[in-house]
Amino acid sequence: MLILLFLGIMGSMVIFLPKKLWGAHFLILFIKLLLVVSVSTVVSLHRYPGSLLPGNPDQFWYVETAQRIAVELRSKNFLDYYEIVNIHNRLYNILLGWITYLNGNSSVLLYRMFNTMISIAIAIIGYHFSISIYPNQRLYHTFAYIFLSFLPSLNIYSQFVLRDILISFVNILFFYLLWIRKWAILPIVIYIMYYLRLQMSYIYIASLLIYATILIFKSLHFESKKHKKYILILEIFIVMTLISYLLSLFFKVDYLFQYIFKFDFWKIIIRFPFSFLGLDFLIADESKSYFSRSILLLSRLLMIDGFILPLIYIFTVYRYFKVRNFDLINFINILSFIMMSYYIGYSIEYNVTFLRLWIPFYPILLLMI
After folding, report:
1. Residue 182, CB half-sphere, CA atoms under 13 Å: how many?
2. How far is CA 345 from CA 88, 259, 338, in A?
3. What is the pTM of this model?
4. Fewest beta carbons within 10 Å, which of 39, 66, 109, 180?
5. What is the pLDDT of residues 283-329, one digit of tens each?
6. 6, 117 Cβ separation under 8 angstroms
7. From start to end of 252-303, where are the E strands?
8. Within the chain, how many helices (H) and strands (E) appear?
9. What percent of the chain has pLDDT over 90?
10. Residue 93 CB neighbours (<10 A)
């Protein structure tokens, strides 16, 4: 029954698109569902543990907590989600728990369909995002929707029982609302991210403060050539202050100093280009990896957008600065600040980065190029 509900929701999302894209929407939906069924069939035939794709053991934890939440819901007892999940970032676990409860039992197929439904929502938001960025380029809007629908990283990770697709949805929603300046809705999005990826919600708040400062200066007509250097100095000062605040908020001060004095912090900065371009596996310790370097290379080839999009984005940023599009330049500054802060925090906390780190940003990078 829940499968029919998901199918109905995915089909009804067509109302958020113009009629000329309705045929494309249903074709995309068919292809995505075909992928879900194919992956589920192959996994079952190979009898992978828990009917889950190999590669990330976190999936077993998500399935287990979903089952425990469903059991507690059936017992009608007071439900303490934190006690079951045992971490702050528990929104995805809760959603899977309710899916399990409503379905009557655990179903990895349903979890994959849920992720697929979210990926369709990402493409639709991206379509409207592209309209707000380039209002007169109708062909680009269509291409944005189609390319977002077929992003390899989103479609492949939709088959894993992981929260990355949901994080991607909240992330593109945040940037879309930021661009169209729907300030009243942004706190709701930040609150949702607070229970999905705690660190990102703090970075959102910091980025809003920076963006508000930029808009204030623009409204005061300080964007003239005479004042540009002073604005740049102020922006850099604010960014560095907030980065210092965020790092001290997430980590102990002596822990941060320990990284700086041991030069580990600078190693993180040096590794940034490799990580951003999806080439971090080339410098990673293979003995600590779940897969060999050759398998990781194959995965990067399958998710080639993890290399192409960041590379094109770098050249696109240069073009925007050259044409001096003030709004896009400031938006790109905020996007870059959020990505860099997220990367630094992730690297310090786990001492490693993964392709998963960047997946929530690929839809936005696509829209910027």
Report:
1. 13
2. 17, 12, 11
3. 0.88
4. 180
5. 766 665 666 777 778 888 889 998 999 999 888 877 766 666 667 77
6. yes
7. none
8. 18, 0
9. 41
10. 24
